[in-house]
Write a structure and sequence with these properties.
With 104 residues, this protein is mainly alpha-helical. Helix content is 60%, strand content 0%.
Length: 104
């Protein structure tokens, strides 16, 4: 099986996305199980994996908010978290050239 030429590049970008989302979640700490209690920095790693997979197709901050509310519940999702996750997601899309299609 032949690898696509961009496969390694996309894998690296996905790892960076996961790392950046883990860091955002740890620092914003929506569930109070990260920075606020001195937990290990990878405390939100599994949640970041779910988030990476769930963000596919998200084209707006409102859609990112919806994904976050599905994962954490609306009461734990605040504007700071949405803004930071959306910024990381937009950066990933820009770096990989995988902009979602415009909504019709």
């Amino acid at each position: 099986m032949t690898n696509h030429p961009r496969e390694g590049e996309l894998s690296d970008a996905y790892r960076r996305l996961h790392t950046e989302l883990t860091t955002v979640l740890y620092n914003v700490d929506p569930e109070g199980m990260g920075r606020t209690v001195g937990a290990p920095e990878d405390e939100y790693s599994s949640v970041a994996t779910t988030l990476c997979n769930s963000l596919r197709g998200a084209a707006s901050s409102d859609e990112v908010r919806g994904v976050l509310e599905t994962i954490f519940g609306a009461d734990l999702v605040h504007d700071e978290l949405v803004a930071k996750v959306y910024a990381v997601w937009r950066s990933f899309l820009s770096q990989t050239g995988t902009e979602p299609p415009p909504k019709r």
